[in-house]
Design a protein that fits this description.
The chain is of the alpha/beta class. The protein has two domains: 2-98, no CATH class; 106-243, OB fold (Dihydrolipoamide Acetyltransferase, E2P) (Beta Barrel). 31% of the residues lie in helices and 20% in strands. The chain is built from six helices and seven strands. The protein has helices at 5-21, 36-61, 65-73, 90-98, 106-110, 137-146, and strands at residues 133-134, 156-165, 171-178, 186-193, 203-211, 225-233, 242-243. The chain has a five-stranded mixed β-barrel with strand order 2-3-4-6-5. Strand 1 (133-134), helix 6 (137-146) and strand 2 form a beta-alpha-beta unit. Helix 1 (5-21) runs antiparallel to helix 2 (36-61). The two termini are 48 Å apart.
């Protein structure tokens, strides 16, 4: 049975990739949506390689005993006993196939407590007419911290993210931003005041108005404030990350 190990491992990994990218949207917990075709192609290729390996191994096993021994003596049959520890590689593949981990949440966000202010202060495009205006958490934080035109003033905004907690009763609506995959995720968060904090990691939509804080472009302006009016519990979106 051990001679089938490499092929089985390829089959598990390929199946896991197809499970998260072709049969569901779980892959968006790890990478951007644009990488889906590459994940699907990789999964298909691994499955095909596994099937070829299984076929060749089964064919070699069916050779006559003396013929098989002759081939073995010349080193042309696959080893029936690969390193036993290699089977441990099946555990991550099975975990991804059967129990895909959740998207990054409050623990990941808590590891980044400050935001780089290197972008500098400047003017931003005019917001769409009508209130409330739907903004990403990253867009709100950028305008609140860097917009010299104060485009958020006197506007009602709607933000969606997950709940993280600070000291005391402080809480934030938070999103993680990715450039390529979850490994490069950074945090955007807005402190919400005036409404009761939901449970940590709960996904919510918060409606409220910007409350100016600190000098533009300074660390005192981070994280920005929102005077909350309403908080609504929502389901986690299929793509939990915002894009840069």
């Amino acid at each position: 049975m051990r001679r089938y190990g490499p092929a089985v491992l390829l089959l598990l990994v390929g199946g896991a990739l197809l499970r998260i990218s072709l049969l569901s949207a779980v892959y968006m917990r790890y990478v951007q949506a644009g990488l889906r075709p590459y994940l699907v192609a990789s999964g298909v290729l691994l499955v095909l390689l596994a099937l070829v390996g299984l076929f060749r191994t089964a064919r070699a096993s069916a050779l006559p005993a003396n013929g098989g021994a002759h081939v073995h003596q010349h080193g042309h049959t696959p080893s029936a006993a690969g390193p036993r520890l290699a089977w441990l590689l099946t555990l991550p593949a099975l975990a991804l196939l059967l129990f895909p981990p959740p998207a990054l949440g409050s623990y990941s966000a808590a590891r980044e407590d400050a935001q780089d202010a290197a972008r500098g202060v400047g003017t931003f495009p005019t917001l769409p007419a009508g209130d409330p205006v739907e903004l990403s958490v990253a867009a709100f934080t950028s305008r609140a911290v860097y917009d010299s035109g104060h485009s958020l003033r006197d506007r009602t905004v709607r933000l969606t993210g997950f709940v993280t907690r600070g000291e005391g009763d402080t809480w934030y609506v938070t999103r993680l931003l990715v450039s390529c995959c979850a490994a490069d995720a950074t945090t955007s968060k807005v402190e919400v005041r005036g409404v009761q904090a939901p449970r940590t990691d709960t996904w919510v939509t918060v409606t409220g108005t910007w409350r100016p804080k600190g000098a533009l472009g300074s660390s005192a302006a981070w994280p920005p404030l929102l005077n909350g009016a309403t908080v609504k519990h929502v389901a986690q979106p299929p793509d939990p990350y915002e894009k840069r």
